[in-house]
Amino acid sequence: MKNLGAMMKQAQQMQAKMQEMQAKLDSLTVEGAAGAGMVKVTLSGKGDLKRLAIDPSLMAADEREVLEDLIIAAHADAKAKVEAMMAEEMQKATSGLNIPGLGGGLGGFKLPF
């Protein structure tokens, strides 16, 4: 039973760290860019779109498809950065915890997005 008590304590520590991490991620932002910076997307640490900046030269009607592609590419760039940041924060939050299945890290658990 001593082992169960230790596991419960570690689970509580992990829960507290996860709550801290969630609050921290909500306050962080990440910028993705495409087209040599002509389109920029800013996401929160949780992946919410916060800002979209488009170079005025892309506003021509004949540039519509290019603009659409660049928005998608900039979003993908920002999302990849958010996922990397989340993985790093998860690693920090779970480091030192010996919870079976985690191995002191994520142990194969997928992030929510």
Task: Spell out the blueprint of helices and strands.
Elements: H1 2-27, E1 29-34, E2 39-44, E3 49-54, H2 64-94
Antiparallel strand pairs: 1-2, 2-3
Helix pairs in contact: 1-2
Provide key terms for this protein:
single chain; 113 residues; alpha+beta; Ybab, Chain: A; three-stranded antiparallel beta sheet; 3 strands; 16% strand; rod-shaped
Mean pLDDT: 82
> What is the helix fraction of residues, given as a range?
40-55%
Quote the beta fraction.
15-25%
How does the major sheet shape up? Answer: 3 strands, antiparallel
Tally of contiguous helical segments: 2
Cα separation of the termini: 37 Å
Shape: rod-shaped
CATH superfamily of the domain at 27-94, by name, is Nucleoid-associated protein YbaB-like domain
What structural category characterises the helix and strand content? alpha+beta
Parts with pLDDT < 50 across at least 5 consecutive residues = 102-106
Strand arrangement in the largest pleated sheet: 1-2-3
Rounded radius of gyration (Å): 19 Å
Name of the top-level CATH class of the domain at 27-94: Alpha Beta
The CATH architecture of the domain at 27-94 can be given as: 2-Layer Sandwich
Q: What name is given to the CATH topology of the domain at 27-94?
A: Ybab, Chain: A
Name the helix and strand elements from N-terminus to C-terminus, one letter apiece: HEEEH
* β-strand number: 3
